Amino acid sequence: MQLPVVRGARKKGADRAVAAGLCRDRDSAMNVAVEHARFAQTPLLIARPAGTCSPLPTVLWFHGFGADKEVHLPELCRLAERGLLAVGVDAIGHGQRQFANLAQHACRPPRETPRLFERIVNGTVAELPALIDRLVELGLTDEERIGVAGVSMGGCIAYGAITADRRLCAAAALLGSPEWTLAELPDLAVERFFPTALLSITAEHDTVVPPAAARILHQKLGPRYHARPDRLCHREIAGASHFMQPEEWASTVDLASAWLARFLA
User: Fold this and answer.
1) Which domains are present in the chain?
2) 8 Å CB contact between 31 and 50
3) Listed residue (118, 172, 167, 177) closest to 146, CA to CA
4) Residue 234 and residue 255: Cα distance in Å, rounded?
5) How far is residue 127's CA from residue 170's CA, in Å, rounded to a whole number?
6) Helix (H, G, I), strand (E, B) or coil at 185
7) With a threshold of 0.90, does the pTM exceed it?
8) Residues 17-63: pLDDT tens digits?
């Protein structure tokens, strides 16, 4: 798959990035190639180190409720700068396949639209194995080094993805909750996490996606990771809310990027 080259912006930042424009690049001069793609019904935004042709360690990145893959181009480029293939995915009903009535629901917390939210989260999780199959088939992805990351609703998807596809070696769930994908078979689902390297980052004062379920999950997972405690980490950002301050978000992305690169690159 031939990708157009996108050069990093100057160290002091860039305007809001779009897929045909500049990736935000504060610390690196590495070129990043970016393009849109569509596998079956799933729209993608793919970023990778320019000039690479062999299968790469890969991260599938999922956005929040009401957002889309384009919003996270800076994060995708950040991962590509670390040598990863970063694949932004439009969740069901979002982005290039947005539901007609999504906007009227997206301004409300998930608990106020539970049926729609569950449909989107679980439906997107169900698409993931076939998406991975296609990335591997095309020679883009190293099947032994695949990870997942997501923000808010995307974090909920990341938790479900771990139990849906055992090929996932690493995961970063940011401001998400496992309650939407693990509620029906909690014991069975928990058994499917190890040895995936899981980082969960929550916000202390998050009222949109409360951190309690992630805390409980990590408590349950602790004994199952006793042989490899380095592969399990929960960070709670003190004083933070769901809508983080820029410096809090920057720190969160730094932690997630380093975690994923550590276990995949």
Assistant:
1) 5-264 (3.40.50.1820)
2) yes
3) 167
4) 11
5) 18
6) coil
7) no
8) 333 333 433 334 469 999 999 998 899 999 999 988 889 999 999 99
